[in-house]
Amino acid sequence: MHFELDPRAPTPPSEQLADQVRFAVAAERMAPGDRLPSVRALAAEVRVNPNTVSRAWRELEREGVLESRRGDGMFVAAKALAVCRKAAARVVAERLERAVLEACAAGLTNQEIETLVRAACAADLAPRPRKSA
Amino acid sequence: MHFELDPRAPTPPSEQLADQVRFAVAAERMAPGDRLPSVRALAAEVRVNPNTVSRAWRELEREGVLESRRGDGMFVAAKALAVCRKAAARVVAERLERAVLEACAAGLTNQEIETLVRAACAADLAPRPRKSA
DNA sequence: ATGGGTGTCCTACCCCGATAGGACACCCGT
DNA sequence: ACGGGTGTCCTATCGGGGTAGGACACCCAT
């Protein structure tokens, strides 16, 4: 699992990381039992303070997405799939709706909006061979 | 022009206000010469500090969207339409794309995404009797 | 000229999230 | 037993953005 932070995104780093895990589990790119990168390793990789990663992992543990094995590592929990499916669907739907309403407010026609959406879908599916880059 | 703040949105209040003006101009719900609500009045209406509104207006003036007439008020600038059309299109496209990519990452199919988008469009068009088609 | 409206600017304070650096408890291979 | 990996916790500190309150300059109707 590869992580990436977008410094221009409106959401803070810790939330971006948490979302990426939630979405990966929801999309079954990660399965229960999978080990996550260590706090320190991931922090070094994405150039962030270890505390920031730790906070994300802690929140996910609170939600039941992750399980911590002290001295060993963090692992995707058994019930993670169910939890993440619900959470991801809710979050994604909300953000999508917000973006669409914004587009409407900006005067875009439904036609234009759907064109943009289709383009974005295509852009996502094309370049990614579904594993590591 | 009616303003509204969403406290749960990821973007700060001042940016929300600025966006609402940009989008209103882009969608021609506001035209050059129109007067904006006064800093203090709008601040009271949306329950925010006057400085927050002032900051939004100042940023819009910097972009050429608004013109300040000291002691009189803030007005939509002559070149506002052109500026806002570009800015709004860029911002909206970016946020829409971000939301769609997120949805893809969360495992939604293109089919599901388009359904959500259509629903959001419909939800927006229904309650609002669109000024200029 | 006056008073009330306008935008502008300034200083202080505060909250939240990220940063920095350290200390501790745990697990496991050696 | 040891050492290096793991997560956890703690105390600062910093910075952005919003808040609070005030002071000022300007325009205009009265």
The number of domains of chain A is: 1
Shape of chain A: elongated
Say what the CATH topology of chain A is. Answer: Arc Repressor Mutant, subunit A
Strand order, sheet with most strands of chain A = 1-2
| Main beta-sheet strand count, sense and barrel state of chain A | 2 strands, antiparallel
CATH architecture annotation name of chain A: Orthogonal Bundle
Strand content of chain A: 5-15%
pLDDT averaged over residues of chain A: 92
- SSE order of chain A: HHHEEHH
Q: What's the multimeric state?
A: homodimer
Report, as a whole number of angstroms, the end-to-end distance of chain A: 11 Å
Largest interface: A-B, 42 and 42 residues
Helix content of chain A: 55-70%
CATH level 4 superfamily of chain A:
Winged helix-like DNA-binding domain superfamily/Winged helix DNA-binding domain
Extract low-pLDDT stretches of chain A: none
Please state the structural category of chain A.
mainly alpha
